[in-house]
């Protein structure tokens, strides 16, 4: 969810907000049907695109004209081509493509939850049947499959920040709680051959993570702990624990409970890495991403929200960790918090 701050709210801006879902729907449909990949080979008529993608000719023409209307395609004399930048960002085979993120950032489950946001606001939590805390929530399969495009910068940061510390240890055992795609742990394993990773998540998610581990050449050093992160024995002790993109799903009290479990599975000199949104003292219009993500947590969880950095200090201290070092990357809304086990 994104926003553009404006010093003066205009009627056109209000209309853009009212109809924003249409643009999302067009982009999602173009990606799902393969329109941008099809046109990556060169300009085509609507009939050619419809024939190649097995679309109804009338439906294909209407879609292509609409994609041109919102600036994703160009059209001249009935021939359609990619708009400038579309090859880089929307063609699935390109190095910088973010097309697959549409399955995560514009998922059916997210849309369903936000359609009844007014009820969530009235009740103070989710009102949909399938949501982020539902066991075996199917969305996590899409997240594990497609969210890898947004993970690289923060995974690289974690690996860089831990590199010197890991190098001083004879071996490094890593627990990745609610691992999802698993890329944070695999980035550590790819950098250091002594690293072994234990991934904890639902079984259907671990299957997808295993595929990423295989692709990155670290599968032989990855172990699985299938089940609920609040209930499954964590094993250990570990040198590093990763808790990424998960604490915002819970209240401060519940998140602290999870952090206490993780602390109990770490070695006395172990290290914790938390990745997620955080709220700072910046006003919402200066740092909109975490405030907008909190809306999704309201619609999608019973008590989740993006926590303030002061709340993280409280949670980590209560769970037995030191105050975290907070790391930021330019133009990346996620923060990386690194803390040590606190000595009595």
From TrEMBL:
Q: Which residues form the active site?
A: 248
UniProt keywords, alphabetically: Methyltransferase, S-adenosyl-L-methionine, Transferase
Domain O-methyltransferase C-terminal span(s) in chain numbering: 173-321
GO:BP terms for this protein?
methylation
Give the Pfam families listed for this entry.
Dimerisation (PF08100), Methyltransf_2 (PF00891)
Instruction: Enumerate the spans annotated as O-methyltransferase dimerisation domain.
Output: 16-91
What protein name is recorded for this chain? O-methyltransferase
The species this protein belongs to is Saccharothrix coeruleofusca
């Amino acid at each position: 969810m994104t926003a553009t701050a404006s010093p003066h709210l205009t009627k056109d801006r209000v209309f853009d907000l009212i109809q924003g879902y249409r643009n999302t729907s067009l982009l999602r449909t173009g990606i799902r049907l393969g329109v941008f990949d099809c046109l990556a080979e060169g300009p085509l008529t609507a009939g050619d695109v419809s024939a190649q993608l097995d679309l109804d000719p009338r439906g294909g023409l209407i879609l292509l004209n609409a994609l041109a209307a919102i600036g994703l395609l160009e059209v001249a004399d009935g021939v359609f081509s990619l708009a400038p930048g579309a090859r880089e960002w929307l063609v699935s085979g390109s190095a910088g493509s973010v097309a697959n993120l549409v399955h995560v950032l514009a998922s059916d489950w997210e849309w369903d939850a936000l359609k009844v946001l007014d009820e969530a606001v009235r009740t103070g939590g989710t009102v949909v049947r399938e949501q982020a805390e539902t066991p075996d929530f199917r969305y996590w399969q899409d997240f594990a499959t497609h969210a890898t495009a947004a993970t690289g910068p923060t995974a690289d940061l974690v690996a860089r920040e831990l590199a010197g510390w890991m190098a001083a240890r004879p071996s490094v055992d890593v627990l990745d709680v609610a691992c999802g795609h698993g890329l944070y742990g695999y980035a550590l394993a790819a950098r250091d051959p002594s690293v072994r990773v234990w991934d904890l998540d639902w079984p259907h998610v671990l299957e997808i993570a295993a595929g990423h581990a295989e692709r990155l050449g670290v599968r032989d050093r990855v172990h699985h702990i299938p089940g609920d992160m609040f209930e499954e024995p964590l094993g250990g002790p570990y040198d590093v624990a990763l808790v990424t993109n998960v604490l915002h799903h819970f209240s401060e009290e519940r998140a602290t409970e999870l952090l206490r479990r993780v602390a109990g599975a770490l070695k006395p000199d172990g290290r914790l890495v938390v990745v997620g949104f955080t709220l700072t003292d910046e006003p919402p219009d200066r740092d909109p991403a975490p405030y907008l993500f909190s809306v999704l947590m309201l619609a999608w969880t019973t008590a989740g929200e993006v926590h303030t950095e002061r709340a993280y200090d409280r949670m980590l201290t209560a769970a037995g960790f030191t105050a975290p070092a907070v790391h930021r990357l330019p133009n990346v809304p996620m923060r990386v918090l690194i803390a040590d086990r606190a000595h009595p």
